Amino acid sequence: MDGGHGSGGKVTEPEVRMVTTAKPVKRLHVSAPGRVCLFGEHQDYLGLPVIPCAISLRISIEGSRRSDSFVNLNLPDIKSHEGFSIEESHSYVRERDYYRSAMNVLKRKGFTFSTGFDCEVRSTIPINAGTSSSSALIVAWVNFLTQMSDRGSRLSPAEIARYAHEAEVLEFKEPGGMMDHYSTAFGGILALDFHPEVRVEPIEADVKSFVLGDSGEPKDTKYVLAYVKNQVIEIVQRLSAKHANFSLHTATLETLHELRNELNEEQFALLVGTIRNRDITVEARKIFRQLPLDHRRIGALLTEHQAILRDVLKISTPKIDRMIEFALKEGAYGGKINGSGGGGCMFVYAPEEPERVAGALRRAGGTAYVVHPDEGVRNDDGVVKK
Question: Per residue in 363-376, pLDDT tens?
Fold first, then answer.
């Protein structure tokens, strides 16, 4: 697995909230990776554990200081351009106005900007396809802004992740969790816990290649996230009101059957699916810690996870199901839909002949990328260190 994502062991928020200060720089080139969620899809916003993996598709921002307070952003990949003055960044002009929201969050944290910037943003991450392109953008942008600010600060990955989550999710009251921001900030494969506090455990396993497949089907991330999230939260609130000790963290499949009469069939299936996904994630974490790594078991758990996402959460699509089927027939060990669902990307674990598997995904009508675990947010002198 590619290095650069930290040493082993668990890291909690208080241990990594460090800021080093340097002289403000005149020109800077930063980047951040996309990510796949190996295990724990639709779990992070419930406070349940997840295992994401940063991948070797990245977004980069390169820029230099201006003599005025204007922020000029060239976006050649989407043939677009954006610009605003630092003084007017508080006024959002579109939904998910991330360039302005990140600057506003940092201003509230005490960062100041005496000059604007000329920047170019480029990306190899599929857009709106479940691979965390928006979170990678904001993580890279926060890293760029803090170093180009008047105080010239290099933040820890945890601090970058927290500010990026605030700029993307909290600022616009959206339903997403924190997995994407931690994954793209820290890099590598992570075991993330959110209860009772955020804990980050880098996974140093001998993980081989994945093949990412973009179905090309448009997805409504905000709607799908809210739809699934709201259903589960409503179920938890209903059960917690009657059973003070009920918790998604401690419930078992056996104890759930005692509650069956309190939920309709769809609600009970969704609750069982949530607990099964949690247990799959817990088992996967154990497998990742073992030597040698059981690659076949990791693949089987991915496919088991996909069955729940497809049949219970109902977030897969016929085309994505077909892409996974084609890939498995060509030697992939297992796979699943990636991200909120309803379209976008899937991926498979393909330690052997990944290019052959990629060809299968193309025959199924998708765009394929062979990817590997990659390092987190960085600038041109390497990864931002803890």
Answer: 999 999 999 999 99
